[in-house]
Amino acid sequence: MSFKKEPVTLKIILIGDSGVGKSSVMNRYVNHRFTNMYRATIGTDFLSKTVTIDKDTVTLQIWDTAGSERFQSLGPLLYREAHCCMLVFDVTSKASFSALDVWRKEFLFQAEPQDPADFPFIVVGNKTDLSDREVSRGKALQWCEEIGAEYFEGSAKEDLDVEKPFLRAALSGLRQVITSASLHLREKRHQDLSLCLTCLFFDDKRYITPYSTKNTHWKIQDISR
Ligand SMILES: Nc1nc2c(ncn2[C@@H]2O[C@H](COP(=O)(O)OP(=O)(O)OP(=O)(O)O)[C@@H](O)[C@H]2O)c(=O)[nH]1
Ligand SMILES: [Mg+2]
User: Fold this and answer.
1) How far apart (Å, rounded) are the C-alpha atoms in residues 216 and 180?
2) Which residue spans traverse the membrane (predicted)?
3) Ligand 1 binding pocket, CB closer than 6 Å
4) With contact defined as beta carbons under 8 Å apart, do 28 and 162 qualify?
5) Is 14 within 8 Å of 60 (Cβ atoms)?
6) What is the atom index within ligand 1 of the atom nearest the CA of 34?
């Protein structure tokens, strides 16, 4: 028997301080373009890209947010239903790295994922082409280990390792979808089971059985007869 697979769309959110290169990373990955000109993102922006993972075609909906506090009013609406969150910092800015802890906490608070401890975060250190580095790979890796995130670094400008974090985000997001689908199925089975038990033990003389296959009508039967 063959099953027709539903197309999957994964929502990936990019967050981090202003100027770290969120828009640049997204544009490099989706459009293969880069500009040195800085135009702060106002509100949010999203781009889609289709990728193939384990023979499955998945659409990535990549949401680029504004790092500037002035444009962050959309947070709760935007973060909800996300499948993966990418925390971006600039390796030449210690402050942008330190800020990720707050960004992550704020994300979990606003997004309210089903299982916060298991929600996938990908940390991206951008601008590795620059020489005045302030955050070492080791330091970033150490923090990622503490919070259970995966770490990638590269350069949107030089097109260095930009694809890897997105593919990893897609894989983690896909796992999220599968986990929540199986949880839903388990809950449904549990509900069916408790419904069944309620019916069987109506009282000590009678029991109740489903009258139709759809369980919409019920029949009380007397055990004593
Ligand atoms: N050298 C270098 N510069 C980069 C790189 N990525 C981005 N930039 C530059 O950094 C500046 C900010 O990049 P954006 O992508 O606009 O940053 P952002 O995080 O989207 O900023 P907001 O929209 O304000 O939150 C721009 O001038 C980019 O050209 C990189 O990998 N290397
Ligand atoms: Mg931007």
Assistant:
1) 28
2) none
3) 18-24, 35-36, 38, 40-41, 66-68, 126-127, 129-130, 155-157
4) yes
5) no
6) 29
Whether the full predicted model's pTM is greater than 0.85, yes or no, is no
Domains in the chain: ranges and CATH: 8-179 (3.40.50.300)
Amino acid, single-letter form, for residue 212? S
| 22 Cα: distance to centroid of ligand 2 (angstroms) | 5
In the predicted model, is pLDDT for residue 167 greater than 90?
yes
How is residue 106 written in tokens?
Answer: 């704020």
Lowest mean pLDDT among 41-55, 84-98, 190-204: 190-204
Q: Where are the beta strands (DSSP E) in the chain?
A: 8-15, 44-53, 56-65, 84-90, 121-126, 150-153, 206-210, 218-222
CA distance 142 to 149: 10
| Ligand 1 nearest-atom number relative to CA 66 | 25
Q: What pLDDT sits at residue 158?
A: 98
One-letter amino acid of 17: D
More confident: 74 or 128: 128
